[in-house]
Amino acid sequence: MMTNRYAIPLLILILIASLSCNRKTDKHDPEFRVYNSTNSALTIQMNKQESSTGIEIAEKQTSEYQLLDPGIHNMEVKSSKSLLEHKIGIAAGEKYTCIIYGDPAQSSKINDATFSYKLHNIFEGSENFTKNGFLPSYMVFRDKIKLKKGLSALRAFHAATGMSPVTIKVKDGKSSKSLAKGLAYAKPVLSKHIKSGVKTLEVYWKGAPQPVISREYDFKSEKSYIIIFYNKENKPGIEILEN
Question: This protein's superkingdom (predicted)?
């Protein structure tokens, strides 16, 4: 007969094993985060049938990844008023970054055009919807990209409302590689691979001889990044998001 001295530790081990098994199912749930490039705090609701996930995010900030159920979600974006209402397909096992951009002050009505109800294949990281100038809109990047050891993947997005096209260069010592040439507002750069390590990112106004932004960054092996060009109080800036 088992004594209490052995029964209690055994029960604890069984409970730990049970919790571990439950956590394994989460690896198939898609992960979704939001970067808010607007000049207003936002509330995002991801609604699917009877379930709903809320994300509160300040301006020029990134949320944590949230676990969602796979399938079609109705995304609602609000500040002091409703800004966006779109349907987005979220696939099992994937990881996404959604960039909300535009000028909420220019939105006199909800930007409510929607994509197809089917799941979307987000090519190497991007899908967006742009409508009518600077109305609030969004871009979705797929964050899971297979990379060889020693390589990093860079993407870019111009979210700087009212600012001119830019050129983005990646410098490593005396060598330089172009990530984007004449990148215009609301346009993405899809995945470009570089050798991992410390590099200098330089952002130029199109045709300018000197960079408006220069920033050193350590790009890690087998990681993907999104470089977001933004406008804060009429000053250009960049945010670098790691997957």
Answer: Bacteria
Residues shown for the chain: 243
Q: What are the boundaries of each domain within the chain? A: 27-144, 147-243
CA dihedral 16, 22, 24, 30 (to 10 degrees): -140
At 126 the pLDDT is 43
Class of domain 147-243: mainly beta
Q: Mean pLDDT, to the nearest integer, of 107-131?
A: 43
pTM of model > 0.85: no
Reported as a single tens digit per residue, the pLDDT across 180-209 is 999 999 999 989 999 999 999 999 998 899
Tell me the percentage of the chain whose pLDDT exceeds 90: 66
Q: Which CATH architecture has domain 27-144?
A: Sandwich (2.60)
